[in-house]
Q: What sequence folds into this?
């Protein structure tokens, strides 16, 4: 006897729940592949995947998620998923910004392939979310993926949870995700074959991966601060020496731990009394400290060099920060004590046991980073043309504009750039000329470093990929087409 309708609904529901509940990157991909196989869904059918999945998974609990995603997909900018129907995109990097961009492009109807060099999401560190990012993620069903998402006044999430949630949403809307695939370089189309010949492709590691045959017309660098795509000059902002320390402690979720108040960065930056007392009592000299309670107890602080030398964290004083912070010049034990002492003082000694969480390398999760030099790309996008094939190249996230962690701007500005990039790609698909497209993109990019949670539009419900819904007093023509001619690269790669 065949299965009844109810049995099929329940089986599909169970398979989908397994996917929703998966807690790792590998586990999610595996549950997704089982789901697709059992329900006979074709994940490479990017156009029809979401509706086939919706038709196959109909148990009561999932309806709210479909409702949210349908609402999002109904934004007029997506033209019912047909705005970029013939666009093929490749995204390098499965960090929050790579996934967020991928989701937008899939909603526009593009074919989207994302490659990620790792197969684990292991960053405990916690990202601050601006109110609009919280709304944006809620609208994508964040709470269905992670029940604890921004409950009450919480405005942060660990990087790993955010990646996991966005990976799941990306898969649902038809993004093709390949992990353990590392971008090596862009391959030009052969000049002599013209438009009939192969188009733009990439060389990846492992070299024989099927992605090396994929031809695309848009490539997006979302591979973090060490962006690997050629053609983008980096601007350096050199400030005064800024050494940031991040530390994660185990959160056992006890009542005592729950009571301890978080330290929001914005409030603490100006709290002189606190920092003076900290210095007097412990010898630790900080410029700021942030504490978020998440999967871990997460602290990020900017420490003054002299106190790190005095406390034996940095062994020898060198002028060059690279030498100063080289692992051979850092006493790891002293660093562990320094961060623990600061965390203890900052929380008024109320956290019962400050045991370090373990990081990706099996070590206590503490790290020290140099923020003296911050990088930003000079430009956000460019167009290459070779053998009659045009390629739109863009950067998003940390590759575009590096954030200062204690201010926690990475994800918020990163998502704005993801939307702006999606808007540009929509224009590209509609046949807008390259120079008009690039000049508009550069005009928007000029706004990005100045954006704050306060000066962007407060009408979050109205946010779409259209920049006019997000930036008040928008001037999208402040960069003129003649100023971006150098970003149209016709011929050999530089
Ligand atoms: P990322 O999150 O860096 O993601 C880039 C992705 O690209 C990674 O998954 C990487 O594995 C992948 N990748 C890199 N090269 C390749 C390649 N060649 N091929 C394929 N894939 C590739 N911000 C804070 O505000 N506070 C913090 O405490 C904090 N801690 C951080 C700790 C670490 C170790 C790192 C790397 C970043 C941290 N950040 C922190 C920055 C924050 O993670 C980013 O601002 C945010 O995640 C958005 O970045 P993104 O998606 O642009 O890039």
A:
């Amino acid at each position: 006897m065949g299965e009844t309708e109810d049995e099929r609904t329940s089986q599909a529901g169970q398979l989908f729940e397994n996917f929703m509940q998966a807690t790792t990157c590998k586990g999610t991909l595996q549950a997704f592949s089982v789901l697709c196989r059992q329900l006979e869904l074709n994940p490479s059918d990017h156009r029809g995947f979401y509706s086939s999945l919706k038709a196959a998974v109909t148990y009561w609990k999932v309806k709210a998620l479909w409702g949210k995603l349908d609402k999002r997909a109904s934004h007029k900018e997506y033209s019912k998923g047909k705005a970029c129907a013939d666009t093929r995109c490749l995204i390098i990097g499965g960090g929050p910004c790579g996934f967020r961009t991928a989701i937008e492009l899939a909603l526009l109807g593009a074919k989207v392939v994302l490659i990620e060099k790792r197969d684990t999401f292991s960053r405990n560190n916690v990202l601050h979310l601006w109110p609009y990012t919280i709304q944006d993620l809620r609208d994508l069903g964040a709470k269905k993926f992670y029940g604890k998402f921004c409950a009450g006044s919480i405005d942060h999430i660990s990087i790993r949870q955010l990646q996991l949630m966005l990976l799941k949403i990306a898969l649902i809307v038809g993004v093709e995700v390949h992990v353990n695939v590392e971008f090596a370089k862009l391959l030009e189309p052969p000049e002599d074959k013209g438009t009939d010949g192969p188009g733009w492709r990439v060389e990846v590691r492992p070299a024989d991966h099927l992605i090396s045959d994929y031809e695309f017309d848009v490539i997006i660098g979302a591979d973090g601060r060490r962006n690997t795509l050629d053609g983008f000059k980096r601007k350096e902002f050199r400030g005064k020496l800024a050494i940031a320390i991040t530390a994660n402690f185990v959160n056992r979720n006890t009542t005592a731990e729950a009571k301890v108040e978080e330290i929001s960065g914005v409030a603490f930056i100006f709290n002189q009394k606190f920092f003076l007392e900290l210095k007097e009592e412990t010898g630790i000299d900080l410029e700021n400290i942030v504490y978020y309670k998440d999967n871990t107890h997460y602290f990020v602080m900017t420490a003054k060099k002299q106190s790190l030398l005095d406390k034996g964290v940095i062994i020898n004083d060198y002028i060059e920060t690279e030498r100063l912070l080289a692992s051979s010049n850092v006493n790891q034990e002293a660093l562990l004590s320094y961060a623990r002492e600061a965390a203890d003082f900052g929380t008024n000694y109320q956290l019962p046991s400050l045991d370090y969480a373990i990081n990706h390398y099996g070590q206590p999760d503490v790290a020290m980073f140099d923020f003296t030099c911050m990088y930003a790309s000079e430009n956000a996008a460019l167009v290459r043309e070779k053998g009659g094939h045009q390629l739109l190249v863009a950067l998003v996230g940390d590759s575009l504009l590096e954030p200062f962690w204690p201010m926690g701007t990475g994800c918020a500005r990163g998502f704005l750039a993801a939307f702006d990039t999606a808007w540009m790609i929509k224009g590209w698909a509609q046949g807008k000329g390259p120079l008009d497209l690039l000049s508009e993109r550069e005009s928007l990019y000029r706004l990005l470093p100045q954006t704050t949670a306060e000066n962007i539009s407060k009408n979050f419900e109205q946010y779409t990929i259209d920049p006019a819904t997000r930036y008040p007093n928008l001037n999208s023509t402040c960069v003129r087409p003649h100023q971006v001619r150098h970003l149209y690269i016709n011929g050999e790669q530089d």
Summary: Residues 21-234+377-488 form a domain with the FAD/NAD(P)-binding domain fold (CATH 3.50.50.60).
